[in-house]
DNA sequence: CTGAAAGCGCTTACAG
DNA sequence: CTGAAAGCGCTTACAG
């Protein structure tokens, strides 16, 4: 008992296979009476169209590949929701996989997607080299870079302006009157850390009010644990202690505020804290976190859209927005 | 300039297309000399095998579909890593999508996967009805249920024993000497809440020591916010206050402990807290959380494995494990 | 061990 | 507006 095909439908409806195909694909030339007859036959035999045959014939599948560094990272998943949303208006769908930040895995998956004739792939590159991506682009599969600083002439890209986000956070703290501010940054070799540092420096440099003092620490990861450790070090080393802390992501901010509370500091009364990312947790904390919101959903949406539009290469940068909540206040 | 096919490779290598196919598929009859010649040709023309043609011919794709309720949920994503890991040993790969807990979306995606002739699908059902899944199983696409209490005769399933996990947590608290314990449970209509409540009750009933007192609250969601609100209510209503709290998930536990700390209670000195799930955050908190670990990675791995094994329907339940960390201690 | 050939289930010019 | 037929790129008996 094989799965019913287009032939079975055609026979039952008393039409040719071409007509069945036209009905399935909404070709407008078919008469209403026949459309109905075909649809009835489809329902009766339980016909499900064979995607492989369609792809083989058409030369391109209706899937879009999405390669992220880590499935557990909420950013990528929010972006993935954006991708899904954009694609849901077309007949395309998302094929999601993780490169686990490995360049080899990335190359492997890229080839896999290419072999499946996907319409294109959204790639959050694992390394600095885009060689593997370049290769499949050369052979005809378009790639859109996602959250990458590279802007090659062969691939579109979407990214968030990390520097201006960091500047926004610093301006907020400076504007509130803070003059002794610590910056708990991520690892030095991550491009996001570099951009955020740049934004911080710009904001300080532009500040025309009374001089402000900045203490920068590079942590070894973007985690709660690192944030807590960073805060402990800060409180031990800095006297007087800073009145505000800008953290390079929300997890660091959560770790820092936990440590601060344990040391008896109240937030925001004794210490203001700003995060970055605006993960779901940020607004749920007992003291909701002021943070720099990254438009991940839109980022994913737009990346998918660029892929579907095809043709011209474009590099788009999204502006993050400051979400002021209760973790920041003027210094006491 | 079309993509090179098997014919181009065959011509260049001076062999038939059948031989090229045999080389690609590691059929052991080909002579080493020809294997080398074909591989050289493949590399030279940049051949990438057309997956659609392969699937059409073979009748089944090398993909496995995975349908989860929510991409942002870390459980599903950890399970997805398990699936990926299991599949990486075969030539299969994962096709991941979210049903957004919608029954209609689920039916739609199920059909989509079926049309792609996936080897099978791992499904975390959105509703109580398995009608749509049953349908594709009937037509020949196997389904393995994931984190569902249903155990139909047509589909295998893997799930975690929520009741025994909850019992583990309660036993731990009772064993430490707590006799006045609160249970902050999730919404009543969620099957996980029901099972966890059952486990709590069993543990209390079995407890042969001095009588223990249990206060149960059903929260309206499994979130930090709900946990914080539940804790506030608990502290306002219960005098004397409980000495230990078991929360139906880690997020509730985090919310509860935030509120407790704000009220000046120290953890675990004044209050012991146990969570459920063991999300990544749990071990990273400033007071690492004692919690019930769910083996999501293994769950995903095993589900994928059951699918690949095929044939017999099997229902497997995994046992959660208590991870004792610093948030619990004997009552003072 | 190898090659020639059929055929998987569609889509798409083409002729009528 | 409809049907007959070619062909997408593979895999797989089959004959040699």
Strand count of chain A: 12
Reading off the top of the CATH hierarchy, the class of the largest domain in chain A is best stated as Alpha Beta
Element order of chain A: H for helix, E for strand? HHHHEHEHEHEEHEHEHEHEEHEE
Structural class of chain A: alpha/beta
Oligomer: homodimer
Q: Give the domain tally of chain A.
A: 3
Q: Greatest interface and its residue counts?
A: A-B, 48 and 48 residues
Element layout with pairings:
Two copies of one chain form a homodimer.
Chain A: H1 6-13, H2 17-24, H3 32-45, H4 51-58, E1 63-68, H5 74-87, E2 93-98, H6 103-115, E3 121-123, H7 131-138, E4 143-146, E5 156-160, H8 162-176, E6 180-185, H9 191-206, E7 213-218, H10 224-237, E8 244-247, H11 250-262, E9 272-277, E10 290-293, H12 296-309, E11 315-318, E12 321-323
Parallel strand pairs in A: 1-2, 1-3, 3-4, 4-5, 5-11, 6-7, 6-8, 8-9, 9-10
Antiparallel strand pairs in A: 10-12
Helix pairs in contact in A: 1-2, 1-3, 5-12, 8-9, 10-11
The first copy, chain A, binds a DNA duplex (16 and 16 nucleotides) through residues 5-7, 15-19, 21-22, 24-25, 29-31, 34, 49-59.
């Amino acid at each position: 008992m094989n799965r019913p095909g287009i032939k079975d439908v055609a026979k039952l409806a008393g039409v040719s296979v071409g007509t069945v195909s036209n009905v399935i694909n909404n070709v407008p030339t078919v008469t209403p009476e026949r459309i109905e007859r075909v649809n009835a036959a489809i329902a009766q035999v339980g016909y499900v169209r064979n995607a492989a045959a369609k792809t083989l014939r058409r030369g391109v599948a209706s899937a879009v590949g999405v390669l992220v560094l880590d499935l557990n990272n909420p950013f990528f998943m929010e972006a993935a929701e954006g991708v899904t949303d954009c694609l849901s208006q077309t007949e395309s769908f998302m094929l999601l996989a993780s490169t686990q930040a490995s360049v080899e895995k990335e190359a492997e998956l890229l080839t896999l997607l290419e072999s499946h004739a996907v319409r294109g792939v959204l790639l959050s590159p694992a390394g600095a080299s885009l060689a593997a991506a370049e290769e499949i682009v050369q052979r005809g599969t378009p790639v859109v870079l996602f959250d990458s600083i590279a802007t090659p002439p062969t691939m579109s890209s979407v990214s968030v302006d990390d520097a201006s986000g960091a500047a926004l956070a610093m301006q907020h703290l400076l504007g509130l009157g803070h003059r002794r501010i610590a910056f708990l940054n991520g690892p030095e070799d991550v491009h996001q850390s570099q951009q955020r540092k740049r934004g911080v420096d710009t904001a300080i440099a532009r500040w025309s009010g009374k001089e402000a003092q900045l203490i920068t620490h590079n942590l070894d990861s973007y985690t709660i644990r690192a944030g807590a450790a960073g805060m402990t070090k800060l409180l031990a080393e800095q006297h007087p202690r800073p009145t505000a802390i800008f953290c390079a992501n929300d997890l660091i901010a959560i770790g820092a505020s936990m440590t601060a509370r344990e040391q008896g500091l109240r937030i925001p009364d004794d210490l203001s804290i700003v995060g970055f990312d605006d993960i779901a947790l940020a607004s749920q904390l007992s003291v909701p976190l002021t943070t720099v919101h990254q438009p991940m959903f839109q980022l994913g949406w737009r990346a998918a859209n660029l892929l579907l539009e095809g043709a011209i290469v474009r590099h788009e940068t999204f502006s993050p927005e400051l979400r002021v909540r209760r973790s920041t206040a003027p210094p006491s």
